[in-house]
Amino acid sequence: MKHKLLFALAFLLLATLAVHAQVSEEERLMSMGTQNALTLDFVEISKKDLMNYWKDYTKDYGKLSKVKKSDDYLLEQVQVLDISGADRLNIYSQVNDLGKEGSKLMVWINDNGAFVSSDGTPEAYSGSVKWLNSFAHYIRVREVEDELAQEQKQLEDLEKELAKLEKDREKYLKDIESSKKTIEGRESDTKKNKSDQPNLEADIKRQQKVVEEAESNYAEVRTILPKDQLKPIEKDLKKEQKTLAKMEKDLDKMKKDVVKYDKDIKKAEQTIDERMSDLDKNKADQEATKKQIEAQKELVEKVEKKLEKVKGEEY
Question: Which CATH number fits domain 20-150: 1.10.287, 3.30.310, 1.10.3470, 2.70.50?
Fold first, then answer.
């Protein structure tokens, strides 16, 4: 986290340097020939980003439209009080890609047919420099605002991660409690089952004797009695056999239940072991995340102070 903090502070310093552009004056080719332009070079800012910043900055003055068959963009008949007071201006601009060095903004300001220059229109030039310095300051603020948003998002993500860890901990504790109840319940079921089995086994032995007697009785009379008298005896025999079969089935189920209860207990014990391990890891993760949150809060505070300072800078 310390490395991340140092990296972020280094990034802020780099961002400060990136937008610290100064207005220069030079002759540049545009849609109306070679004219005096005011230029600003921006380090580490791409042509695309600079163009987006310029569009955002100028939208309160008017619509920035593309000049046909030219690389120029035009703000037509707009008022910029610092430059010309209430008079209307045509402001032409281009953004050039400087590759690894960044990008360049070139601005031509046409005031009543004359392009603003330090020699020809010193007052308008001074106002133009102030206006473009305001744009550089606008980018500087935007860059720090974007950085603050990123750091705040990082803080939110860490806080969400901590909340998830806390929720996971509650789930692990519930799983352990549930598993303990399962073990308690299955141990009670096993005890009762093993207590009931001998009783059922005794009942089965008695029922076996009943069936044997019924079968013997049936064997003695089946060749003697007529069918109509034999039917009730057959019915009683089948009833006793059915009772015996059900009792044996119940006993078999009870034995299988004991095996199932044992598996349930072992599974619950395994769950407890796993969740105890999860709790140990969760505790360590929470402590680490809390430290990250505190460090991130410090970083957010630093960036907030940086933004406040940048907003208050003169330009």
Answer: 3.30.310
